[in-house]
Amino acid sequence: MILLFQALFMLLAYDILQAVCSFRVLHSTVKGWKVANVPAEQDIIDRVCMAVNHACVWYPKQALCLQRSFVTIYLLRRHAVRADMVLGAQKLPFKAHAWVEVEGRTINERSNVQATYAVWDRC
Asked: What predicted TM-score, i.e. pTM, was given to this entire model?
């Protein structure tokens, strides 16, 4: 339950930051968060993903991929999981997407984003 409230709070925090900061600031914020150097525990990964999914259902606005990734990466790193937020794009038709990877494995995604989008940054 605590993870759910943390996820809801971070969805709100992202909306506030996005309103007053540029993408560059948000990107630098994520890059600045410490990354643990310990093996990932599947239980905490699953719990964080579930909390973010539930928080997105209860959040009054639709959370897009960048916001979901921002919240997921924050919670995972806070629980000592080495995770990366990945930003990618495809050329035609142009689409951009953000997702989270743990040990090179995409989490909390329904499709194989690594095959669809070319990675242009990891943070």
From this structure: 0.93
Q: Which residues, other chains included, contact 12 with Cβ-Cβ below 8 Å and sequence gap of 6+?
A: 59
**CA dist 102 to 20, 60, 83, 98, 108, Å?**
30, 28, 5, 14, 10
pLDDT at 109 over 80: yes
pLDDT tens, position by position, 47-106: 999 999 999 999 999 999 999 999 999 999 999 999 999 999 999 999 999 999 998 899
Residues 6+ away with beta carbon under 8 Å from 50: 3
Phi and psi, residue 39, nearest 5°: -60, 145
Residues 106 and 119 sit within 8 Å (Cβ to Cβ): no
Q: Which two tokens stand for residue 34?
A: 């410490």
Q: Which residues contact 77 (CB under 8 A, 6 or more apart)?
A: 33, 34, 35, 36, 83
Assigned token pair, 73: 């990466």
Name the amino acid, one letter, at 86.
V
Residue corresponding to tokens 């525990």: 41
